[in-house]
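Data availability (excerpt). The following record was deposited with the supplementary files.
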Amino acid sequence: MKRGSQEPSRPRRRVVGLLCAGALGAATRPACAGAQVEEPLANAVRSALSAAVADNAPPKPSFETIDQRLSYLRWLGSMSERLRHRKTEHVTRVEFLEAVWYESKRAGLEPALVLGLIEVESGFRKYAISLAGARGYMQVMPFWVKLVGQPRHNLFHLRTNLAYGCAILRHYIATESGD
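Predicted structure:
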């Protein structure tokens, strides 16, 4: 938002709504997705989003240096401990964190940003549904499945939801030039 301006730009309002809507009590109320609306997409954007949500299994992470691998393992251990009260089963928690790390890195996002968005939007609830109809961890609106052209995708599937959520977030960050 420009200084002195009272009204945020339309795309920024959508991102702010996406990021802030769940802050009003995600753990006690239905999840909220903000004022997302279906919008026309250029063919190039549609193709890029479609490629980003392709349902490929995540590869095991590989690292150029041992320090990078150790940093990832420290992150995984630290985040696993922090999420213990939200996801009590160790295997489920690690699978969730590995998917968050992979999808966020694949989209060029920081895993901490994605985890923060998930906490605000769904309270780490896989089957969260907002009053507006957004679904899953990252509260993805169903119209995105149609826009991207993948009608068989289930937004409650962990990797699918994260892939869509990260691709959409990356799209809006790029649209707003990183702001």
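Summary of structural features: DSSP finds seven helices and no strands in the chain.
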